[in-house]
Design goal:
The chain has 90 residues and is mainly α. It is 93% helix and 0% strand. It contains 3 helices and no strands. It is flat. It is found in: Membrane.
């Protein structure tokens, strides 16, 4: 019985490590996205003469667009297949 418990504990540990790794990678991707928009932020503010509140909405909309794009990509991939959805997006 202990072999079954040991196997179950090892599987749970692998699942925890996998989940933690994905969470860390998601944090890195968020940092990358924020880094991309921060380079353009001052130029957007200057060229369009907008205040800090409006730039907050622009940055937030970029994150929302990324989330919606990921959901759309998942649906396209499931519906048409990965290869066709990549060809379509290119």
């Amino acid at each position: 019985m202990s072999a079954v418990m040991s196997s179950s504990a090892a599987q749970a540990r692998r699942h925890i490590v996998f989940t933690a790794t994905l969470a860390a990678l998601a944090g890195l991707m968020f940092g990358l996205d924020v880094g991309v928009i921060s380079g353009a932020q001052q130029f957007i503010q200057r060229d369009f003469a907008i205040d800090d509140r409006a730039i907050e909405h622009i940055v937030s909309s970029m994150m929302l667009g990324a989330a919606l794009g990921a959901a759309l990509a998942a649906w396209l991939s499931g519906h048409f297949g990965r290869k066709r959805s990549l060809i379509f997006s290119a």
